[in-house]
Amino acid sequence: MNRKNILITGASSGLGKGMAIEFAKQGCNLALCARRTEKLENLKEELLKINSSINVFIKALDVTQQKDVFSVFKGFHNDFQTINGKLDRVIVNAGMGKGASIGKGFANQNLQTAVTNFCGALHQMEAAMEIFRAQNSGHLVVISSMSAFRGYPRAMTVYAATKAGVKSLAEGIRADVLKKPIKVSTICPGYIQSEMTDSIGKPPPFMISLDKGSKLLVKAINKEKANAFVPFWPWYFIKQAMPFFTLKMLRKF
Fold first, then answer.
1. Whether the model pTM is above 0.90
2. For a 10 Å CB count at each end of the chain, is N or C smaller?
């Protein structure tokens, strides 16, 4: 199905920005939101240079603020109606990776990650599904992570837990609308270069460039499968092996 009008959260940098560029190349109209509006303005200019025939709408949004999420999503829906369209797809992408081992004095950072990645994602899913249910169509895309399948140590502990949570949320919504013309996809990326991975220090294993990762993400999203692993190799096979990893192996991984 051709999804012409797409909303992406966390679009000012990283995977959100990369996906916006790829969708612009495909001629999609875009609704982009993030906290850093100056970066959104620059991105809008870049996208219109890539494809001057598309429409790009931008709004500031902190996804932890529930009322703001509903207001911004409805505003974008109205924006698409002004160009004789509707909101076709929402990509729940906004998130962060702050944190440290539990009990080491970083409770505030861990809580911030938990609220942004899980509660913020819930706000986005609620707002998107309210619109999709009303129009009886749409594609909800949830960006989870390969870390969602096991618990991880150190800075990944809370992050992995939130990604497991949003994966479960997406599956629950998918079951709820199983007989409706509404699609729900969970995308689990491996390591794709971004501001988040740059902060790790030592490059993680099997990391690919943002450009390649964005292309693969968009390709997976357009297939509208229930679950996708990006890139498929080696992460699909790693996922199959993950239940057998010892905790010692997880620490190294």
1. yes
2. N
